[in-house]
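SEQUENCE-TO-STRUCTURE ENTRY
===========================
Question of interest: how does this chain fold, as expressed in backbone structure tokens?
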Amino acid sequence: MIVQEGDIFPCMYFIHEGEVEKWVTDKGGDKKMISLLSTNDYFGFIPGLFPNSPFQFTYISRTVVDVVFLRFQDWQDLLQGYPEVKYSLYTAAKQLKKEMMGKN
């Protein structure tokens, strides 16, 4: 298990190599796999940009996985020099976060 649903860790993960299963727990408490992520996919977009946001899904490695991660502080340092990119990322992230909260 890479990250468990509900974990709070301000980090975004990029899959360099391998496969990662994305799982969710439904309202009845049943767990189901909703997608399979692979090379060049990513997860943790919301927790990576909003440090106190819990992960909404569990991510489990299906194969040997090589991931690269970017912590919240790293994002801030990186985006400081690119205000237009920062604005676009946060706009998209806020919309996604709003949509995700509406599903719960």
